[in-house]
TrEMBL record:
The gene is qnr. InterPro entries: 5peptide_repeat (IPR001646), Pentapeptide-BTB/POZ_domain (IPR051082). This is Qnr family pentapeptide repeat protein. Pfam families: Pentapeptide (PF00805). The lineage of its organism: Bacteria, Pseudomonadati, Pseudomonadota, Gammaproteobacteria, Enterobacterales. SUPFAM superfamilies: Pentapeptide repeat-like. Signal peptide: none annotated. NCBIfam families: penta_rpt_Qnr.
Length: 214
């Protein structure tokens, strides 16, 4: 029997460190739950009928893992998510505002850790989120909201960036190779330290009326 929960408030320690496969969670509330080290594989957190996702606000998601899950419309606001894994998931419209992927060493020094790869992040909200030097490759970012976010030094290679406002966030020192860069305009985006492949560089130059030969 696969686990199916509908409209439940999840107790704080119910899934702490657990491995959960192929479960269905419709309109469930994980707010404040301790999911440290928990692993969810092939699970559904989105109710297609109501078009609502589950709520994880203020949850502890350190070292938590979501693989091949449907996280569409999920509320991840204000979660603690150092070293979270989200791999090969659907996360359209998910809300990450206030989420922390950061380990504070002192008040002025920190590092971030997150592994969000091969996932559909279209229309997700990352406003003011700090994801420095993280593994963020081969994602779809179409229409994502990123105002005030910081992706500096992250691996964004192989991504898809349609309807995407490059001016809204910090992408310095990012790896953008093999990505579809959408409307990126080198004239109004700080690309210091950014990695591009030769085909991308040629396309960006062409938009400035510069032809790259060879």
């Amino acid at each position: 029997m696969t686990l199916t929960l509908d409209g439940e408030k999840i107790d704080r320690n119910r899934f702490t460190g657990a491995k959960v496969e192929n479960a269905t969670f419709h309109n469930c509330d994980f707010s404040g739950a301790d999911l440290t080290g928990s692993e969810f594989i092939g699970c559904t957190f989105y109710d297609r009928d109501s078009r609502l996702g589950c709520r994880f606000s203020r949850a502890q998601l350190k070292d938590a893992s979501f693989k091949s899950c449907d996280l569409s419309m999920t509320d991840f606001r204000n979660v603690s998510a150092l070293s979270i894994e989200i791999r090969e998931c659907r996360a359209q419209g998910a809300d990450f505002r206030g989420a922390s992927f950061m380990n504070m060493i002192t008040s002025r020094s920190w590092f971030c850790s997150a592994y969000i790869t091969k996932s559909n992040l279209s229309y997700a909200n990352f406003s003011k989120v700090v994801l420095e030097k993280c593994e963020l490759w081969e994602n779809r970012w179409n229409g994502a909201q990123i105002l005030g976010a910081n992706f500096s030094g992250s691996d964004l290679s192989g991504g898809e960036f349609a309807s995407f406002d490059w001016r809204a966030a910090d992408f310095t020192h990012c790896d953008l190779t093999n990505s579809e860069l959408g409307e990126l305009d080198v004239r109004n985006v700080d690309l210091q330290g950014v990695k591009l492949d030769s085909e991308q560089a040629s396309q960006l130059m062409e938009r400035l009326g510069i032809l790259v030969i060879g």
